[in-house]
Design brief:
38% of the residues lie in helices and 19% in strands. With 337 residues, the protein is α/β, with parallel strands linked by helices.
Amino acid sequence: MFASAMGPSVITPYYFKATEVIETEDISMSTIVTSDRFPILSRLASKYRGPISAAVHINDNESKDRVLAQLHETFEENPDMKRYVDIHLIVDKYDRQFNMWRNIAKLYARTNYIMMLDIDFYLCTDFRKDILENVELMAMLREGRTALVLPAFEYIAQSDGFDYSHFPNSKEDLLKKVFEEEKLDMFHRSWEKGHSATNYLKWYTATEPYRVKDYNFSYEPYVIFNRQSSPWCDERFIGYGANKAACLYEIYISGIDYYVLPNDFIIHQSHAYPEAARKRERLFNRKVYTSFREELCLRYARQFEANGSWNTPISNNLRKECKKIRGFNNIIKTIDE
């Protein structure tokens, strides 16, 4: 019955370990990588020039040795890979266990703070410097109740998004691309729920960080947060659809607020998508996500009530979001009595 079910993975933490001295009060890029993205990982190492914790998945089939050789070659070709990148190798026969891979990258990151980054995004600004030198933002991250959002953009014409060397590297240049040239827009503008809570109209004129007020359960921002005070990604989500949203939903329900950085941003680098697999897996994961949200609201409500934090601000996000679930208002009233 379970002959084709998902089985154990062979995980090798620090298959390659960065040689650069890593300070714990720093921000690691926490990312997941497949073999077709090795060149992009190398580019990220040279662009970021800071700690990177990368979970690299390789299929356990006849291509394994060839792909491993490509990984070694990538390290040999770029000294920045050796200096900054920790590789945690995952070898199995199962594609797209995205949340398990994310947890591996987070688990073995060697800094207190991580950015959960999709490898296809280009870092346009030096947000790391901006954050590490900002006393208020660092205090918020240390407290563990804040996740910082970097607004994500993409080129309207996919053909414009392949050459990263032409991407804007300042907010001023970005705004020209958005309003004068009309070449850039919010990431996944065809699926507004994914990023609209960032409130791009507000961001265009913002000069200070601001809190996300119109959260919805489809929100998938790219965030920087405290690695040790945040929940893990739920690994029941396999394949495309809802996997990252589920991670971010639990972060939010656990009592962590999202704050948008006013001057920093990232841009998606164009690539082809396997649309047939995406459509099929999204339909399945949409059903899983509905049940997951109900389960999560019940679990955290019980946890907050048991540890005495129900009547504190930590439960505010849960109260606001979980009341959207049918019947949950009655549960909230019962706990409040």
